[in-house]
Amino acid sequence: MRATLTSKISGVSSDDRLALLQKIRTGLSFKAFEELRKALEINRKELAELLLIKDSTLTRRKNKGKLLVHESDRVIRFAKLFDQASILLQGDNNAALNWLKSPLEILSGESPLEHAQTELGTREVEDLIGRIRHGVF
Question: Under the GO molecular function aspect, what terms does this record hold (predicted)?
Fold first, then answer.
C-alpha cells in the first residue's frame, strides 16, 4: 500500500488515529505546512488563506518551527481530503488535485478545497466523495 499524504506529513500511519491525534495535539512541525503546500501545488499565500492563517502568524510559526493545535488539525484535514480524492480517482494525484481545485456547482461554486475551510465544509466534501464513490448523486 502506498504512503498517504497524511502519513507523510504527520510521520505516523494515517490509519493510527490515536497517534495522529497525539501528533495534532502536540503540534506538527512547520515542515508539514510545506509538504502540504507542495502536494497541493499552491503557493504559501494560497495555503495560508485556505488554512485561515494570517501571513504574520505563518512567519512566526516558521520561525518557531511548529504549528499550533488548530493549525495542525487544519493541515491534517486538507491532507486527508487529498488522500480521499486520490483514492476516489484511483491513485491519480493529478486528477485529485484538479478535482480539489475545481469549482463545483454542488458546493455553491466553490472548489472542494475552498469549501473545506471549516469543519462543516470538510464534512460536506467528504460526504460528496462518499456519494461519488458509491454512485449516489
Answer: DNA binding
In one letter, which amino acid is 83? D
- The mean predicted confidence, pLDDT, of the chain is 95
- Res. 1: pLDDT tops 80: no
CA distances from 96 to 19, 43, 62, 113, 117 (A): 26, 18, 28, 11, 18
Cα distance between residue 26 and residue 31, in whole Å: 14
Per domain, the residue ranges of the chain are 5-133
Give the residue-averaged pLDDT of 28-37: 97
Is the confidence at residue 92, as pLDDT, over 50? yes
